Amino acid sequence: MATLVSIPEVVTPIPLPAAEPQRLQDRFGRVMTDLRVSITDRCNYRCVYCRTGTDGAAFAELGIEAYAAMIRLLVGLGIEKVRLTGGEPLLRRGLLDLVREVRSMPLAFPGDRDNGVEIALTTNGHLLAGMARDLKEAGLDRITVSMDAVTPDAFERITRIPNSLGRVLDGIHAAQDAGLGSIKVNCVLMRGWNDDQIEAFGDFARREQVILRFIEFMPLDEERIWAADTVVREAEIVERLSRVSPVRLLPPNHPSETARRYQFLDGSAELGIIAPVSRPFCGHCSRLRLTSDGKLRTCLFSQTDHDLHGRMLRGASTSEMREYVRSVVLGKEERHHIGEAGFLKPSRSMVHIGG
Hints:
Layout: E1 34-38, H1 64-75, E2 81-85, H2 95-103, E3 118-123, H3 132-138, E4 142-146, H4 152-159, H5 165-178, E5 184-189, H6 198-208, E6 211-216, H7 234-244, E7 247-249, E8 260-264, E9 270-274, E10 287-290, E11 295-297, E12 306-307, H8 308-313, H9 318-330, H10 350-353
């Protein structure tokens, strides 16, 4: 009689769906989608709210390929918007190559933005006229010009560079001609320095068709001149803009938007006020920052740097780098403490962090 041999049943495993990629999220539920990268702390201006008036600072910058590698890592974790800053980013050789490289990076969550990473740049505009068209052709989406006065004498008083306002205006016009969208112009207001420019800026925005942003002065300057009474607050700015023409409040474009948006009633210009001192927006913060020497920062006012570039140099694997970034983001500060007892100014000034 034949012996029956039991043959184990062959079970074909059913493939499980791939695990959903995880958003880059902190312990307060905020999702990180925005990255600001300082690609140099060199600058051709010496603005009083940023740098000292002396030369000889120890500049720190990496090779363009190092920034590209760190940006690629963070885009792979869910970053969707990259802003290149400084210092003055137009001073960097290889800038156009970096823009092209970022433009080629695939999004981790492509359904959120079909046309890839949004690339923006903040500049003082001094070199912009000769570079605007090349930046557009390389893939830059948007540009912001830091411009803290509309009259030559006030502009020189702020920047400590003579005869430079005309070059900035030429840069704005060149960016408009190149098709770089609606140009944003940022003005850091400081009482006693340029608060007399508010109404003139309103007229400027209407005439030049730019998006105007006023920014409250923050304690991030090298010379440590910040004090609470130097801050020009939102209510005063709105009242004075209304002297130019009546304004109305606009709804936000998205929850993490930093500026409260206004518009002249006649539709001639959009205005905005970024008020981190009098109206903090930490609860919706979606930003990370990379310093010019490759340190990851979770807040402008952090007391700690996280050496992302150093870990890369030491040969950390991609998976190790990703886990490191996730752990850093989990420790992101809940908010800043400007104006509170015991507030500590950040461990670096703005020029070293990136604007």
